[in-house]
Amino acid sequence: EVQLVESGGALVQPGGSLRLSCAASGFIFSPSAMSWVRQAPGKGLEWVSSLYSYINTTHYAASAKGRFTISRDNAKNTVYLQMNSLKPEDTAVYYCTPDMSRWGQGTQVTVSS
Q1: Which of 43, 47, 71, 109 has minimal Cβ neighbours within 10 Å of its Cβ?
Q2: 3-state SS class at 42
Q3: Distances in Å between the alpha carbon of 94 and those of 54, 55, 75?
Q4: Per-residue pLDDT of the chain (113 residues; tens, 9 = 90+)
Q5: How far apart are CA 12 and CA 25, in angstroms?
Q6: Residue 60 has what pLDDT?
Q7: Exposure string over 1-25, b if 16+ CB within 10 A, otherwise e
Q8: Mapping DSSP to helix (H, G, I), strand (E, B) and coil, where does residue 58 land?
Q9: Residues 96, 85 contacting (CB under 8 angstroms)
Q10: 92: which residues sit within 8 A by CB, 6+ positions away?
Q11: Which pairs count as long-range contacts for 100-106, CB under 8 Å and 24+ apart, including other chains?
């Protein structure tokens, strides 16, 4: 059974930083692409970033590029999202997913002064 446990969300002021973590289990993690998506209040899911392990490449949505960094630790079956220069519009529940169809419970990020 695939399990994804996101953590690290918090209330942070604009301009602040957070690092989200996602601990994965139930599938072969190291070759799997991993992505972060988010859902803002009242809106649909928005893709944020993906990391393709087998070709060691990363991709970012325009809204995240230059501010967010995705990374992974295959020894810990964990993917991270470092978020800097946070803006109120980054407020959302953040989810990790290996295939855009399975995710965990999410972690809440609120950017507000």
Answers
A1: 43
A2: coil
A3: 24, 24, 23
A4: 999 999 999 999 999 999 999 999 888 888 889 999 999 999 999 999 999 987 779 999 999 999 999 999 989 999 999 999 999 999 999 999 999 999 999 999 999 99
A5: 29
A6: 97
A7: eeebebebbeebeeeeebebbbbbe
A8: strand
A9: no
A10: 38, 39, 40, 41, 43, 46, 109
A11: 100/35, 100/37, 100/47, 102/2, 102/4, 103/4, 103/6, 103/37, 104/3, 104/4, 104/5, 104/6, 104/22, 105/5, 105/6, 106/6, 106/9, 106/39
| Two structure tokens written together for 67 | 């501010």
Take residue 27 and report the two structure tokens written for it. 């599938």
Encoded tokens for 62: 């325009």
- Tokens standing for 59? 């991709």
